[in-house]
Amino acid sequence: PSNRIEHPAGGYKKIFESCEELAEPIPAHVSGKIPAWLTGSLLRVGPGLFEIGDEPFYHLFDGQALMHKFDLKDGHVTYYRRFIRTDAYVRAMAEKRIVITEFGTTAYPDPCKNIFSRFFTYFQGIEVTDNCLVNIYPIGEDFYACTETNYITKVDPDTLETIKKVDLCNYLSVNGVTAHPHTEPDGTVYNIGNCFGKNMSLAYNIVKIPPPQDDKSDPIEKSKVLVQFPSSERFKPSYVHSFGMTENYFVFVETPVKINLLKFLTSWSIRGTNYMDCFESNDKMGTWFHLATKNPGEYIDHKFRTSAFNLFHHINCYEDQGFIVVDLCTWKGHDFVYNYLYLANMRQNWEEVKKAAMRAPQPEVRRYVLPLDINREEQGKNLVSLPYTTATAVMCSDGTVWLEPEVLFSGPRQAFEFPQINYKKYCGKNYTFAYGLGLNHFVPDRVGHLLHVLILVFSGVLMSIVVKPGVTQRPAFLLILSATDLTEIARAEVDVMIPVTLHGMYKP
């Protein structure tokens, strides 16, 4: 019927379609004027191959890693992209089938092999994916593409060539680390991952990778565990996607989305399972906030609690007058948001996409405030005395501190997500601006900013890759906006479609 409401970007499904890599950089058509000082590369990564032969990948986080680069120089722009030569990709290309199990797609033993070798393949246990489609970040002088497993992939940011796969387990006691490390001005890198702690119970380790070394050795070889957070459940770690860092503290938010490790270890080797199959929600625990000091790394044994939410991205955290202010992009409830990011859901018609988003957890930007100085006597009273926030922290009779947030932004099924701040200047410090991508029922269709709330903030400009899926000519472009008022400065259009990208960085 003609009254069907189409999303204005009706072809949004095209961002979930496979594309070819480029043999060489292609020139972009620039309109507007790119500032002369803006010289460098915008690097992004995301899924670029959504099936191998006739075998589809099922989840948004399964497509094979494709690295994108916009080079800016003297007002000119080129665009280039290449698949990262991970083991997952190289073996899939060689065998023309999915060989390594991805986040939401199970790989099965080769049907052409005989029954004994197939049987044996099952019992070899877990082959963890190195499909580094989530982010790119520098360690020392090097650049790494990553996902959330123990494997990161060293890449050349100029040629986009794949250099080598690095197993962090060779240097650190972690099962994997997040794709959102924090970096200090001197180049020190911090990250968090879960691990087996004392007497086989689970914990979360903050790891520290030192800055570039004088002797030109690899900083990863000198990495170490700095501090350990306990797990609320002995055999079920919470899923962790990012963490917070202030000048003197680490903030770890433990949500009710759990990984059932027993299921992960047993069913994986006996019958085909993938990562998504091993998530479950603890509908009783709510959300716990943990703090640790940075130097020296020590866990602070205060029990901060609040109601259940999913968390993927921290916006920023900072210390102020004896409090830690924690700004987060939350999704209410304990139902796992990734359950709604299967490609079949994302590719549905707009009406169906909207229906699914009605059932999904609702997004909300929140500010929590954690008091550092906690006095057991002050039961029932709000411990937060910062004048500019309505967030509260109340001591309960059991010694826990109950947190209620200040809501910074809330719109039904409208998320402010993938937040960015002027990181170099304001990470861990009191700040004024955050920028983010507007998700409309999970479809990214706007750029916004929160005052006192896929973009990179760099010296007063924002950069975002924009696609116009319904258009045949120049369907994608790099958009450069003024960070102060979000007016357009320039755009650089290319004649190829660009699939969805997840994260990235600007390399001056």
UniProtKB/TrEMBL annotation:
Co-factor remark: Binds 1 Fe(2+) ion per subunit.
PANTHER family according to UniProt: ALL-TRANS-RETINYL ESTER 13-CIS ISOMEROHYDROLASE-RELATED, BETA-CAROTENE DIOXYGENASE
A matching Pfam family: RPE65
Species annotation: Cyprinus carpio (Common carp)
Keyword Metal-binding: yes
Swiss-Prot/TrEMBL cofactor(s): Fe(2+)
Molecular function GO labels: all-trans-retinyl-ester hydrolase, 11-cis retinol forming activity; beta-carotene 15,15'-dioxygenase activity; metal ion binding; retinol isomerase activity
Name of this chain's protein: Retinoid isomerohydrolase RPE65
Annotated keywords: Iron, Metal-binding
Residues at which Fe cation binds: H180, H241, H313, H503
Domain of life: Eukaryota
